[in-house]
Design brief:
By secondary structure, this protein is an alpha+beta fold. Helices cover 30% and strands 18% of the residues. A hairpin with a 3-residue loop joins strand 1 and strand 2. The structure holds zinc ion. Zinc ion binds next to loops.
Length: 141
């Protein structure tokens, strides 16, 4: 448990807890990007998925799957899933080191479409040298 971590010290008054499991809980994100923006968070303070124990991974992904099923169809047509690990970023209200999986209910005309449109222009073709570099790197044990 980290003293200044908002997820280790979840504010139950301010935060709407959606589910509380043995090792994982889910809350409505506050602040949020879109209505229904949900966070799935392990109770133990870890920074990235690889730091989770096997039983935590299982409960985390089972919780993500259960909430994604509720989001799709009941709240929105689609759902983005995000996890950011950015130790290079400066501390801010929007950056918390405690692992959190973001579930974003998505619709064709939500405001994130403009960001996606911008991102679409940034995509570039995978060149052979890059493909070779990363294929070698990722296939090493
Ligand atoms: Zn924490």
């Amino acid at each position: 448990m980290i003293i200044n971590c908002p997820f280790c010290n979840i504010d139950r008054e301010r935060t709407r807890i959606l589910s509380m499991g043995e090792k994982v809980f889910a809350v409505l994100s506050n602040p949020r990007l879109l209505p229904g923006h949900t966070l799935v968070i392990p109770k133990r303070h870890v920074e990235k998925i690889a730091d989770l124990m096997q039983d935590e991974r299982k409960e985390l992904f089972n919780t993500v799957i259960a909430l994604q099923k509720k989001i799709i169809g009941k709240i929105a047509t689609g759902c983005d899933m995000r996890h950011m690990y950015r130790p290079f970023a400066s501390e801010s209200k929007a950056r918390v080191d405690h692992l959190q999986i973001h579930l974003l209910p998505r619709e064709v005309n939500d405001f994130l479409k403009d960001i996606m449109r911008l991102e679409k222009k940034m995509w570039t073709a995978l060149v052979p040298s890059e493909r070779e570099r990363f294929t070698k790197l990722f296939s090493k044990k």
